[in-house]
Design a protein that fits this description.
The protein contains nine helices and eleven strands. It is α+β, with helices and mostly antiparallel strands. The strands form two sheets. Strands 6, 7, 8, 9, 10 and 11 form a six-stranded antiparallel beta sheet that branches. It has a five-stranded mixed beta sheet with strand order 3-4-2-1-5. The chain starts with a strand and ends in a 29-residue tail after the last helix.
């Protein structure tokens, strides 16, 4: 890999565009600026059509002076490909270009990608100097769209970890990225019919697992606290005084509340999907109603804590515990309902008409 490199491609709207890459990418920036290229807000350089007379040959000559190689991509500009795809997806999607000029920027991206397929592996083993993000402005889903390494035409699409579940690296619930063809209509069909449903199912499974883990932790801590209260001693048999018992109780309740916020964040969406009447356990409907009310009470309390001024700790503990206890009592009913409640599938797109492949330019050339 060159210390500094300029990657050229063709944009439908802007003509020649350039992206700087390499550990010494500032050298490439200098060469582009001296050659008359202008940088946009996304970090992409454009050759303005204002009569400057700059040619690619001029850029190559200038780049050599700055120890920078120039590479011409055989693909069209990734921003065009991403925007064409975004326009054909259901709902409203926004596309933007991401530049990872320095290899460390790509490394910083890896923990945020929620993927158990080829895209996740490529980010860890291949150089990806640029990509595009696709953001669903309705649902908040954000996808990463890259050129498939080692292939002339294909792309890969995967997802960033969903909001509230950001620590997604290595998560067994992560969806598999998929390969997309270089035709916007067919690519959108694959994303809408295959990837987004699997992504939504993965989010559902991960939210369910997160709530199960939190309830298990709180239940374990409650059992430890109850045993300590009953015995009047710490776990190491040290006598527990009244003041220490009060302090331990406050610590337990505060810790339980902080953990319970995971339930507050994720349970409402899952409860809305539960259909106890059509499940093997129709009698769970009453328990689900109690759980929904408990979450609503906790949401009200959280809103007061965050936005409504100071809520005394003693009051917060007294109001939070009934909601937490309701979930500890009825949580297993919720979990079995959530596990059999499939997410709603998005409407399928009409089958795209056959498309002609993109015209590939000459094989990529590197300047010496």
């Amino acid at each position: 890999m060159a210390e500094a490199e300029i990657i050229l491609s063709h944009s439908r709207e802007s003509g020649i565009v350039a992206i700087a890459s390499g550990e010494q990418y500032p050298w490439a920036h200098t060469a582009l600026a001296e050659s008359g290229f202008r940088r946009d807000d996304e970090g992409v350089y454009h050759l303005p059509a204002d009569g400057t007379g700059t040619t690619v040959v001029d850029l190559v000559t200038c780049a050599k002076r700055h120890r920078t190689s120039v590479h011409t991509s055989s693909r069209r500009f990734i921003g065009d490909a991403a925007r064409d795809l975004a326009r054909q997806l259901p709902d409203q999607w926004h596309a933007s270009v991401e530049i990872y000029s320095h290899p460390s920027w790509q490394e910083d991206l890896v923990p945020w990608i929620w993927d158990s397929g080829e895209l996740g592996r490529a980010l860890q083993s291949e150089r990806i100097p640029y990509a595009a993000t696709l953001t669903d402005t309705v649902h908040g889903t954000t996808l990463l769209f890259i050129e498939r390494p080692g292939r002339q035409l294909d792309y890969l699409v995967g997802a960033f970890a969903p909001e509230g579940l950001e620590e997604g690296y290595g998560d067994p619930h992560a969806p598999h990225s998929i390969v997309l063809p270089p035709f916007a209509g067919r690519a959108a069909q694959a994303v809408a019919d295959r990837y987004l449903p699997s992504y939504e199912q993965a989010v559902h499974a991960r939210r369910t697992a997160a709530i199960a883990a939190v309830l298990g932790d709180i239940r374990s801590e409650r059992d430890t606290w109850q045993a300590m209260v009953a015995s009047g001693r710490y776990s190491d048999a040290t006598p527990l005084g009244a003041a220490a018992l009060g302090s331990a109780t406050e610590e337990f309740l505060d810790h339980a509340w902080r953990r319970f916020l995971v339930v507050v964040d994720h349970a409402p969406t899952l409860i809305d999907r539960c259909r106890p009447d059509s499940s093997p356990w129709p009698d769970d409907a009453t328990a689900l109603s109690r759980l929904a009310d408990a979450v609503a009470d906790a949401e009200t309390l959280l809103d007061e804590v965050v936005h409504g001024g100071s809520v005394p700790p003693q009051e917060r503990r007294a109001r939070a515990w009934p909601a937490i206890e309701t979930w500890l009592t009825n949580g297993e009913r919720f979990l079995r309902q959530a596990r059999v409640s499939a997410p709603h599938r998005r409407p399928a797109l009409p089958v795209a008409a056959p498309a002609s492949p993109l015209t590939a330019s000459r094989p990529a050339q590197r300047s010496r």
